[in-house]
Every structure is written in structure tokens, then in C-alpha cells.
Amino acid sequence: MFETLKKAPVDKIFALLGEYRADPRDDKLDLGIGVFKDPSGNTPVMSAVKKAEQRIFDAQTTKTYVGVSGNRGFCDAIVDLVFGKSIDLSRVASVQAPGGTGSLWVINQLLNRARPGAKVWMSDPSWPNHWPMMELAGLSPQTYPYFDSETRSVRFNDMMAVLERLGPDDIVLLHACCHNPTGANLTPEQWDKVAESLNRTGAFPFLDLAYLGFGDGLEKDAYGVRKIAQTCPEMMIGFSASKNFGLYRERAGVAIAVAAEKRAADIVFSQMANVIRASFSQSPDHGAEIVRTILADPELRQEWEDELKTMREQMLTSRTSLAASLRKLSNSDEFDFVAEHRGMFSLLGLSPQAVERLKVEKGIYLIDDSRVNIAGVPVDDTDALASAILEVLD
Of 243, 252, 285, 323, which one is the catalytic site residue? Predict the structure, then answer.
């Protein structure tokens, strides 16, 4: 049996983490894997999460099954968080999934049932796991132009030229906010044009919502999702609570479908539940119940929103400080885009050779495409990081 197999490629992000952990240098710096870090370099448990966990521990009397579709209170709370009062929620169906990746997996399976082998158009570049997940589900991944490596901005006209050529058999994957890996995001006006195009051509919107609240705030970050839901008859969304609730290892996500009317939403719900039952049966509940507890309690919710704001402001400070250090030390505005982008990541535009030098010579770990985790940048010493970056430039 096993003689037919070949060794699978190693995931470069987690391989890099292994290298970082094995590095004995005290001054090493991990800017690769996408987790938030406080000024001390730790990835903390949010205080609202700790309080919610204690309440759950005190009140919980059973560990029996929750159900195939997951924690309904969690799903409903996330739907409300994402959409607010922007649409009729009877059009919405949702199921819990193991993290944002799990929600994308459920959606991919469903889309392949609806349109076997359909083309899914994603940004160039995109999160590296998008492509293999699409292929594994039987879909056909394609790319549309997105990031201009020279201007460090969105190639919006080129992107729209491709979207305008699509039709009802095409699926368009969009990063709802905080684009990974570039940090270059669509403006509200651009979201309006994308929504209008999708509605006109009939191409199906599929949004990855992994960083709600990490860009410009909960309401502003939800603009694209809400605009498309208001404009297009159908869409799907993969939501993750890993980043904005700090629940990385708890794997709490939601797969959300918006249909033209309730009857269609009910059918989609049954299909998503069927996918889940035939694969992992149901999702782990602990992370979901933490989020449900927080969002159901006004005081805990406010505490969480305050913590989320602090995290977001730290990332904004890191962006502006790093950009300022790079400008000061290089006497150039080449890296000003770092301050202009939003979310956890930016692409620095370094060559793979420069990234390797940063790792070997400086103990600074980045993905080989030079994606930097802004949430790991040491806020109090961006000059040292900027100096190291400039030193390895080709």
C-alpha cells in the first residue's frame, strides 16, 4: 500500500517555525507565522476569553454532543457580528467548523457539489493554502491580478478586467479585509464596483473573513461583506475567530451562506450539515462556547472589543514606526506602503536571497516571499529591524 506514496511537501510556514524554535540565538525574531504578539513577544490569552472560560467551567454540567451544525448560539452571534442589520437574516444559513480553514473546507465541498469542477478565481497572490484546498475539493483554482509589486498597491483596473469577463459558472474568492499576504486592501468605493460587477455578471462571491477587526475596526472591516450581501443574491463566507479572539488552537470558525430567500438557505444548510456529518461529524465546542459567552454578555463583549482595539492599534503603531525607521535610515520613501496597508501582514518586496540572509545572519525569520507579520514587529525597536532589512537588500 504505502509503496505507492511519495513524501508530501512540508508546509513552509510551519517548517520555518521549526527552524525558529531550534535557533539558539537569544535575539532571534519570528515574523513568519501569523499570530498576534504583545510588546513582550508573547501571544496572550485575552482577558475576556479567560473570564468566559471560567464561567463555562463553573456552569458546564456535561460534555455530550452539541450537534452536527455545531453551537447554534455561536453561529448566530457570528452572523449578527458580520452582518448587523444590513440584510434580512432569514436569507442566511450557518454551520460551525474547525477554524477558518475548516469553514473554507466545508464551503469548498458544497461549491463542488453545486458546480462540480468549477473555476474559483483568487487573488494573485493569496493565502498559500487557498489553492491546494480548492484542488483537494475538486474545484479548479485560477488567479486574477491583484497586487502590484512595484507600487505596492492593488491592481484594481486589471482585477476588474478579469472579473468583468466571468459568468454564473465562475466563483470569485475575495479577502474580506486585511489581505493575506499583502496587506493591500480594497477601498469602500472599490468594493462597491466589485459588488456591482458580481451582481451583473452572475459570478458567485466567496469571501474569506479571517481578520475582522484587525484592519480599521469591526464595522469598517465588514463593509465589503455587507455590500456584497446587499447587492448580490447569493454568497458564501468563511469566518475565523482565531485572530480576533486569540483562539488559534481552539479552532472556532463558521461557514456562512447567504441565499436569495429562506427556502434556498434551508437547502444550503442541509447540504453543509451533510458535508460535516460525512467528514468530521461535528466541530469542537470549547472555542465556540467562549465566543458565544463573550458576545452574549454586554460587559464581556465591551471588554473584548477594547482588547481588540488595543491589538489593532499596536499593529498600526508597528506599521507607522517601521515605515518611519525605514524612511529615516534609507532616506527613501520606498517602504512607506507599510504604514498605508492594514491587517496582520505586508509584503516587503525582498528577494528570497535577502530573506535567507535575514534568517542566517540576523536571526530574523520571514516567509520566503518576504511576508512580514506586523503583529510580531517589536514596537520599541523598529530601528534595529529596519537596519537589518536595509543591510540585506540586493
Answer: 243
